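Practice problem 4.
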């Protein structure tokens, strides 16, 4: 998908949208609070877009004006979405309410920060959670959206794949890391629950990149160490690829690479290039530092809680050498990162203490 908003002068919003099917006439959904959605089709020929090669006919242009939305200049809450995918392409910026910043939070957990969706939507004009669901071309369009100056993105996307584009688009980047054994336990439990429910068809949509574990988690004896060991002894190559050091893959590997210990230095270097790196075990510190960077509290009173069953499974997994081997790179990466975070926080505390004593 490709799109661009050309102008919003209050009385009209104009732009173009080229869907994934280059021969289809794009449809745009116009959404306002308390009103029924309005679906329109592109009606304006755009030879310039056709010449770019992203659409066969160039019939991709649209205009939202007072004829379609009565009193449009006074409609503050208006959104434009691609009708087929529901991807948000435009929302009006609210001065004094929305942050004039582009921010990407790399969070590799299968359970991202709860309540972040609503708070990010209140603070940013455009919000895109779970970015791992988007195709590469769509991601580039979202990142390079020059018309909007307030964008929030988060997810399990590959940092090496998008780092250059994020830097060029002036994004602030941050990362939140999880204990590798706890994260694996979370994944196994959640995927296992989905397999036992009527929602297995949702797995590819909700948990991109983890569908290869569907058979692995089926009948996985989560409370039986010997049964777990037997499962890991019989992993297929595809399952192994899905299990092996996902955090190192996310921060240190280019697409197609299998995470190894040699990728850890690259991952650490990439993390060092970010404005903020935190660990879930010190989440309140991460939250406070993030609020200082953004000038707003993004996480509120949220505190990640590890369910006792997850902690118990993580402990069982940590005692299985085959599992430790699969997570070798992540265990090294997390150890280095956590040590650096704790050291940095300790140094900051020492500085504050010294400053306080000299007052």
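Answer key:
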């Amino acid at each position: 998908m490709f799109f661009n908003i050309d102008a919003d002068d209050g009385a009209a919003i104009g732009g173009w949208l080229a869907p994934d099917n280059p021969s289809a006439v794009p449809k745009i959904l116009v959404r306002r609070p308390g009103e029924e959605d309005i679906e329109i089709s592109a009606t304006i020929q755009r030879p310039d877009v056709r010449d770019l090669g992203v659409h066969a006919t160039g019939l991709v242009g649209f205009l939202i004006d007072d004829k379609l939305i009565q009193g449009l200049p006074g409609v503050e809450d208006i959104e434009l979405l691609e009708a087929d995918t529901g991807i948000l392409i435009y929302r009006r910026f609210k001065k004094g309410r929305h942050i004039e910043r582009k921010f990407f939070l790399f969070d590799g957990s299968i359970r991202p920060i709860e309540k972040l969706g609503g708070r990010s939507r209140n603070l940013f004009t455009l919000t895109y959670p779970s970015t791992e669901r988007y195709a590469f071309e769509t991601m580039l369009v979202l990142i390079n959206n020059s018309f909007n100056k307030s964008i929030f993105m988060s997810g399990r996307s590959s940092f090496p794949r998008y780092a250059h584009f994020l830097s060029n688009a002036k994004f602030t980047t941050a990362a939140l890391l999880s204990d590798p054994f706890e994260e694996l336990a979370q994944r196994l439990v959640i995927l296992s629950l989905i397999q036992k429910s009527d929602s297995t068809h949702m797995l590819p949509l909700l948990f991109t990149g983890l569908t290869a574990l569907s058979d692995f988690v089926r009948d996985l004896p989560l409370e039986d160490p010997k049964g777990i060991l037997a499962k890991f002894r019989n992993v297929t190559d595809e399952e192994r690829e899905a299990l092996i050091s996902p955090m190192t893959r996310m921060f240190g590997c280019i697409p197609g690479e299998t995470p190894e210990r040699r990728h850890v230095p690259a991952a650490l270097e990439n993390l060092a290039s970010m404005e903020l790196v935190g660990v879930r075990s010190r989440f309140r510190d991460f939250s406070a530092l993030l609020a200082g960077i953004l000038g707003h509290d993004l996480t509120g009173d949220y505190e990640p809680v590890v369910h006792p069953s997850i902690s118990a499974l993580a402990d069982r997994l940590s005692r299985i050498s085959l599992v430790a081997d699969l997570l070798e790179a992540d265990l090294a990466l997390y150890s280095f990162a956590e040590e650096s975070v704790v050291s940095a926080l300790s140094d900051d505390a020492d500085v504050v203490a010294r400053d306080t004593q000299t007052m």
